[in-house]
Amino acid sequence: MSQHYTIHFAKGALPPRNPAKHYFLDRELGHQKGILTEDDVYCSCLAKTLCHVPVPVTVGFYAPFGCRLHMMLDKIMVLMQQEATQCEAKELQHVQWQPRPVQGWGFSKLLWYLVFLQPIITEVHLRRKNVKFLFIRFSAWQYAGTDKLWAGLVTTLCEGIRQQYGALSFSLYSVLGKKAATRPGCRQREWHCRRQLCLTLLALLAALSLGMSLLYLSMGSHALSHGNLFRAFGGAATTLSSSGLLMAMYSVGKHLFVSQRKRIERLVLREKFGSHLGFMCEVKKEVRLLTDFLCFLEIYQRRRLRVVLEITGLDTCYPERVVGVLNAINTLLSDSHAPFIFILVVDPSILASCLESACSMKGTADNGYLFLNRTITLPFSVPIMGHRTKLQFLHDAVRSRDDLLYREMTRNVRSRGGDGGGDGDGGGDVEPLLEMEEQARAESAQSVLEVQAARSIQEALCCLHDEGDCLFEYVPDNVVSMRRIVNTVPITVRLLQQQQGDFGGLSPRQAVAWVVLANQWPCRLSWVLQCLEDRQQAGGAPEACARLWDVFCDHSLELHTMNETLQKVLDLDGDPELFQRFLGADFPFTVAEAQRLLRCTVNLDHSIRRRMGLIRAVSTLKSPRPPKSPARKAPHTASGANHAPGAAWAGQAPAHACEAHQPPGRGQVQTHGLSALHLGSV
């Protein structure tokens, strides 16, 4: 039964917004020093799970684009390494053995074990809990141009392990190494001497020594009678033994200079490789050789090895290539003893669409989500960004701004003011001195403006990551959008200062709130501004103190009728309820404030307003009325004896002209309806 614990954040973290908020976590996680935000909590829980999960495992790291993916992956990598270090320290307290190194003098010992010893999988090895992680990152975007994206995945995996442990050790194992064996009778002994290899090597060396000796004796003066016989036997022994040794050295050198990556690339580039029956079998052999080498290293180092392969950028590739990568994960890299942890960083909606649209998956993956569920064995959807995480990201983005260092500007102003003192000499030209003094004053005034702008920018940006302010709640969870807002605020503040002096009665908080409004709801804001512009052109502009939210409510029904036409533009907007709370309660901008801020708005696409203006102009146009038939007017003209035949048409023409310019009211609609009924009865 899970217990109810409170997270204790580390010193230096942001103060808690809601102290009564609790989480279901363990005590160690709550007191961990690296836990600062909600993202750190999720990453720590995932890292702890991956340290003890059975392999192979495929983690579905589900998140949309720009959702702090790489930052969370880096955090998970650090936490997994920390967890592995702690587990190894606890393990070494209860055992007498120590892990063997593979660098320095340990590398020569590793080569000796590779050649002359065979590893044995024992119960002691299976019970070990200390783990070492090898992190390899595969970016599918870098291999998007190739037809076989899965080959890039396999070659990246092979190359990463080869670089981690060296090419020589892997080449020796490829030629002379032997797969680990399982022997229940030898439960404590982890290594077995390869007697056959040792005897073969001793026989070759003995034959080589004998042959060299016979050749030496054949050249001596005391063996002239048997010189030809010694020379024949010596040459044969030397040739046979040296050829065997040279063949082994040649094989090692070939694997040393021709890596697995090059061999797989040659297989892929071979013409008609798809018709080659043993192609996939050859690739499978290379992967199996890699897993056997990792098993050998596990027993030698006395620790478990886990290869963490982070796959990113897969949702930016073509559907057929996405299918190839998933098939490689399911078939080539999914042996029961493969120590692989795949972290598939994708947007599930995009990946499901790719699987459904792939021609090779017709009938197999008609539902992309079901096929994805058959591949993913550990789903992990990146949660919505919490308050602490959002404040931390905003704080980091603000701290990275260079124009916040206004103290250096103030120092420059003071230094310039200190250098303005002149000497007491009355001689010299007066005009050059006056020009220099005016220039110094202009530069000083400009520096003062720069300092004021920097202070205003700092005040505006501080509102973004102030937990006591509600503004950060309207900032999106997307890291790219955060940077866009932070980068736009200085331009808006400087434009306000240059165009309207002291911000025209607006505060820096209002300026940054306007930037957030334009970034989060560009369609709705453009609609309000276009409605204001149309009413001003018609001469019926609202009062300056009227709220933008009231203007939006007056024209929201008209916007709803244009939903199909503006569907793609409306998709750019955020939550409508937050928009209502933003303009209706937290930031009630007025018409006058919107007009002043509009001239300083640079993060709003004005083409949206122009498109809305054209749509409104077209919708207000009236369809022309069809001309009335003279036959229907004949009874009316005949009934009027005192009127001329064309008097009725002459009297009605101006009336129709006036109706064409006047909007139809309710009374007019009823009149037309009665006249139509009257004509029907006649």
Tell me about this structure.
The protein has 682 residues and is α/β, with parallel strands linked by helices. Helix content is 60%, strand content 7%. The protein contains 29 helices and eight strands. It has helices at 27-30, 38-52, 69-92, 105-116, 123-126, 149-165, 167-176, 195-218, 227-257, 260-269, 279-301, 319-332, 348-357, 368-375, 387-399, 406-418, 430-464, 479-500, 508-520, 522-537, 548-554, 556-561, 567-570, 576-586, 591-598, 606-620, 630-639, 647-661, 666-681, and strands spanning 57-62, 117-121, 131-139, 181-182, 191-193, 304-312, 340-346, 378-381. The strands form two sheets. The protein has a five-stranded parallel sheet with strand order 3-6-7-1-8, with helices on both faces. A three-stranded mixed sheet has the order 4-2-5. The radius of gyration is 40 Å and the shape is elongated. Residues 41-411 form the KAP NTPase domain. The chain crosses the membrane at residues 197-217. This is NTPase KAP family P-loop domain-containing protein 1. InterPro entries: KAP_P-loop, NTPase_KAP_P-loop. Residues 638-657 have a biased composition (Low complexity).
Alpha plus pi helix count? 29
The end-to-end distance, rounded to whole angstroms, is 87 Å
Radius of gyration: 40 Å
Q: Tell the overall outline.
A: elongated
Could you estimate the helical fraction of the residues in percent? 55-70%
How many beta strands in the DSSP annotation? Answer: 8
The strand line-up of the biggest sheet is 3-6-7-1-8
> Mind summarizing the main beta sheet?
5 strands, parallel
Q: From the helix content, strand content and strand pairing, which structural class follows?
A: alpha/beta
